[in-house]
Task: inverse folding
């Protein structure tokens, strides 16, 4: 959450303003600057948009900058835009774009959990940006247990429906989250279902053993969903 101070009216903006108005986003490689402007103009007045291109081929790298007039507008864009854009506050202009791109990929694509944020790899097809599970598939080519689209989640602490839904919704394809309560114990139990087995596999891989809340480890296992697990 960004908190921007109110500024006196006028054309002057100090250095702090300059560094809080530019965001860095991941976009489909087919996007033009006009497409980028169209997607982000709902969050505020845009000063300029730019797309990072390969210096040799001139093709888009699938990354871009959006500069707003006010820090509050940039903050709103980061908070409210679709997660597929992976919007973050851009580094100051005195840092080279190549260095920032490297840091961006290193920090946002790293294959471990950062707080309650799950990293994904994205590819672009006719439907736009889609999650890619390639890194997981390469590391876990052989799965020793029957898989399904449905998961069982167990915790020694009770679950709050909205919070658990938000956690598992970080993996694309969540269909439902059903929290159940045992009147005789204080433990938590829930059934999670995804639209594809790939999403369920990824959710189990990332969230089994995840501490939520901190100090309370989740146990995530597959539940039989009646489908052929060999698929």
Result:
């Amino acid at each position: 959450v960004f908190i921007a101070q109110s500024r006196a009216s006028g054309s002057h903006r100090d250095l702090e303003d300059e560094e809080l108005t530019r965001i860095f986003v991941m976009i489909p490689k087919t996007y033009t600057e006009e497409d980028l402007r169209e997607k982000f103009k709902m969050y505020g007045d845009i000063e300029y948009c730019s797309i990072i291109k390969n210096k040799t081929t001139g093709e888009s790298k699938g990354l871009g900058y959006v500069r707003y007039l006010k820090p509050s507008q940039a903050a709103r864009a980061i908070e409210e835009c679709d997660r597929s854009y992976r919007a973050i506050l851009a580094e100051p202009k005195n840092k080279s774009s190549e260095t920032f791109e490297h840091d961006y990929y290193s920090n946002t694509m790293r294959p471990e959990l950062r707080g309650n944020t799950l990293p994904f790899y994205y590819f672009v097809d006719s439907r736009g940006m889609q999650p890619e599970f390639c890194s997981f598939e390469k590391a876990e080519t052989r799965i020793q247990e029957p898989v399904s689209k449905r998961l069982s989640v167990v915790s020694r602490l009770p679950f709050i429906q909205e919070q658990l839904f938000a956690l598992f919704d970080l993996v694309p394809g969540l269909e439902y989250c059903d929290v159940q309560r045992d009147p005789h114990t204080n433990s938590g139990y829930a059934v999670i279902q995804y639209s594809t087995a790939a999403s369920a596999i990824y959710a189990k891989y990332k969230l089994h053993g995840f501490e939520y809340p901190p100090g309370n480890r989740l146990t995530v296992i597959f539940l039989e969903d009646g489908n052929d697990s060999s698929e």
Q: What stands out?
A: Confidence is low (pLDDT under 50) at residues 1-13, 109-143. The domain at 150-222 is CATH 3.30.70.330 (Alpha-Beta Plaits). The chain is about 25% helix and 25% strand. The beta strands are 22-26, 46-53, 60-68, 88-89, 121-125, 128-132, 150-155, 174-181, 188-194, 219-223.
